[in-house]
């Protein structure tokens, strides 16, 4: 279980991005963290992945533990070795490399060849479109396909906990629905997920538990479906626009993965 307790994070010693955040990702669950721009969602993932230093950020107090072991002060690669792998915001893939080269880059830390092969097969089974395009340049993939590649690359490290930073960003509602389905499937295969999102419709659809982050503090938390029904979340995050309804329709029908080949 991943546990964050009373976490305070600052940037450049001044900006207080997280102010006493406590949350948990129990094994086998999908946990969503909702929040608008600047709420501290990315900061939370950076703290877990131990990359705050690269952004002039610092943990002032509190703790981040995985299965009881502290992640604070670890090298980012040690956090990956422990099984926590982040898909960064803006899906930073290597656009000049092929799809397969991108995946190989994600499997660099894997212990042996057969584990790597199995991880790659898992990715190609989840995303048939990546298998089809394996020798093609990653930069030529559509936005949705690039997001799939970014997720696939993280899966190459066989994570116990997958950390996703706004995977829906900039994608059409139909594609967001597909991303939601794939998160559900990855979780079904045994990987816990910490999903940070502004798109509450998709996130609450796939999550078991959810937290709302409001300017660095948790303002609401609970069962994802119960939270989705509250007035506050309805009003602030689930405007009943056509986009939201469309994502809901795609995620909740839970259609088969065959559509990924389209
Ligand atoms: N490298 C940095 N240096 C200084 N301040 C930063 C840095 N990164 C983030 N911040 C500030 O920390 C706060 C939280 O930012 P963060 O990026 O975690 O929010 P977010 O919820 O991920 O927002 P978004 O939805 O826009 O991605 C904001 O006030 C932001 O301006
Ligand atoms: Mg962010």
From TrEMBL:
The keyword Ribosomal protein does not apply. SMART domains: AAA. InterPro entries: AAA+_ATPase, ABC_transporter-like_ATP-bd, ABC_transporter-like_CS, BCAA_Transport_ATP-bd_LivF, P-loop_NTPase. GO terms for biological process: L-amino acid transport. Residues 2-240 form the ABC transporter domain. One of its GO terms (molecular function) is ATP hydrolysis activity. Keywords: Amino-acid transport, ATP-binding, Nucleotide-binding, Transport. Belongs to the ABC transporter superfamily. This is Branched-chain amino acid transport ATP-binding protein LivF. It comes from uncultured Frankineae bacterium. The lineage of its organism: Bacteria, Bacillati, Actinomycetota, Actinomycetes, Frankiales.
């Amino acid at each position: 279980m991943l546990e964050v307790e009373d976490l305070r994070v600052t940037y450049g010693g001044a900006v207080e991005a997280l102010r006493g955040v406590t949350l948990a990702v129990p094994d086998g669950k999908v946990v969503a963290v909702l929040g608008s721009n600047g709420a501290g969602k990315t900061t939370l993932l950076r703290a877990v992945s131990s990359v705050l230093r690269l952004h002039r950020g610092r943990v002032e107090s509190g703790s981040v533990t995985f299965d009881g072991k502290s992640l604070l002060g670890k090298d980012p690669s040690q956090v990956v070795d422990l099984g926590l792998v982040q898909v960064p915001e803006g899906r930073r893939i290597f656009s000049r490399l092929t799809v397969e080269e991108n995946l190989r880059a994600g499997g660099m830390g894997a212990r042996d060849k057969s584990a790597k092969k199995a991880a790659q097969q898992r990715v190609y089974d989840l995303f048939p479109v990546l298998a089809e395009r394996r020798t093609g340049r990653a930069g030529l993939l559509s936005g949705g396909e690039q997001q799939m590649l970014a997720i696939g690359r993280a899966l190459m490290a066989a994570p116990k906990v997958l950390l996703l930073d706004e995977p829906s960003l900039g994608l059409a509602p139909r594609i967001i629905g597909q991303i939601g389905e794939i998160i559900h499937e990855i979780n079904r295969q045994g990987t816990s997920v910490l999903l940070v999102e502004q798109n509450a419709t998709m996130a609450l659809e796939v999550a078991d538990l959810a937290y709302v982050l409001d300017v660095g503090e948790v303002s609401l938390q609970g069962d994802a479906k119960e939270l989705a029904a509250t007035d506050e979340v309805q009003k602030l995050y689930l405007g009943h626009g056509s986009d939201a309804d469309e994502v809901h329709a795609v995620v909740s029908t839970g259609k088969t993965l065959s559509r990924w080949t389209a």
